[in-house]
Amino acid sequence: MLVKLTEFFRNLPGKQCTECGKEIEEQHECYGNTCSRCMNVQDLT
Q: What is the pTM of this model?
């Protein structure tokens, strides 16, 4: 049985950081696999 494309993407597991294993909040313009903490990126808020 074929699965709808939207259902396929909805059921994918969350992306995890390759350094610490923490789940990454994905962004549409980014294909990175390392979280901001492991990249030493400062929060600008």
A: 0.57
Separation between Cα atoms, residue 33 and residue 17, nearest integer Å: 5
Q: Of 12, 11, 15, give the one whose Cα is nearest residue 23.
A: 15
Residue among 14, 20, 15 nearest 40 (CA):
20
Q: DSSP 3-state assignment of 45?
A: coil
Question: What local confidence, expressed as pLDDT, does residue 45 receive?
Answer: 54
Phi, psi of 7 (to 5 degrees): -65, -40
Helix (H) or strand (E) segment spanning residue 10: helix 5-10
pLDDT by residue (tens digit) across 1-45?
A: 677 888 988 888 888 999 999 988 776 567 788 888 898 876 655
